[in-house]
Design a protein that fits this description.
alpha+beta; 3 helices; single chain
Length: 142
């Protein structure tokens, strides 16, 4: 013979389950928040990678400045320009490939300085007499 308390077990367990379902969103993330969480985590990882890349570039730039050597990546060679009286055309996308604090010397196809990219802006030697100042000479026997 069941006791009088047994008849309250089922209704109280259903009530406890309902209460747990009501309180679950307070303790668990909702599925809509999973994408936000994943996006935030991915953004944090990519920012960390970019910070490391910038730090490595800064270290490399300091080392290059100390040695005084010009690596191949710090110059741009225009193969469709031959030191004429017209300004060479550089796309904005090409200028955006370089960091804002980089100084890149631009050469024509015969390895003569045509200008420089500084602060993501191209300065042509026809516009400025200092555009090719301190430009390293590139050997044509490469």
């Amino acid at each position: 013979m069941p006791s009088r308390a047994d008849k309250y077990i089922f209704p109280s367990s259903v009530a406890a389950l309902g209460g747990a379902l009501i309180l679950a969103p307070l303790f668990l993330q909702m599925p809509s928040e999973y994408t936000t969480f994943a996006t935030k985590k991915q953004l944090a990882v990519s920012e960390e990678i970019n910070r490391d890349r910038i730090q490595q570039r800064e270290t490399t730039a300091d080392l290059i400045q100390k040695t005084g050597l010009l690596p191949e990546g710090r110059s741009l060679r225009l193969i469709d320009y031959d030191n004429s009286k017209t300004r060479p055309r550089l796309r904005k996308q090409t200028l955006q490939n370089y960091l804002a604090d980089e100084l890149i010397f631009v050469y024509d196809r015969s390895n003569i300085c045509a200008g420089r990219i500084e602060n993501r802006k191209f300065t042509w030697k026809g516009d400025s007499s200092t555009a090719c100042k301190n430009a390293p000479v590139i050997n044509s026997d490469n």
